[in-house]
Amino acid sequence: MTDRDLIRVGDTLYLGKADWVFGDRSMTVRVSDIRYGLDDVDSPVVGILATITSAGRDGRMAAIGVYKSALTRPGVVQRRQPPNGVDFPATERP
User: Which of these, 33, 34, 44, 65, is most buried using a 10 Å CB contact count?
Assistant: First the structure.
């Protein structure tokens, strides 16, 4: 798996306290934008903008640094599937 396959806009992340930089609690977020880190193999962190969907802050936007090592663990990244079951490659969006 390449770093580009770790995370996509629209993914839901189930983050524990140790999964994100300065993490003070577990939370669930939906990725709105990927800011940095995926294109740099030496970066241990991916910077994202996300909507918090749990942890008492529902609906708030946050800039979060997520450790790449957390994104490779099972259960952290939940990818949305299209209703017809066909997933288009990132370069071929309808």
Answer: 34
- pLDDT of amino acid 93: 47
Q: Which of 36, 18, 35 minimizes the C-alpha distance to 27?
A: 18
Token representation of residue 79: 């990818």
Q: What type of residue sits at position 38?
A: L
CA distance 7 to 71: 7
CB 32 within 8 A of CB 60: no
Note the pTM of the prediction, 2 decimals. Answer: 0.80
CA distance linking residue 63 with residue 36, whole number of Å: 11
Edge-first strand listing for the sheet containing 27-36: 61-67, 45-52, 27-36, 12-15, 77-78
Element (H, E) at 77: strand 77-78
Instruction: Give the closest residue to 32 by CA, choosing from 11, 59, 56.
Output: 11
Q: Which residues contact 5 (CB under 8 A, 6 or more apart)?
A: none
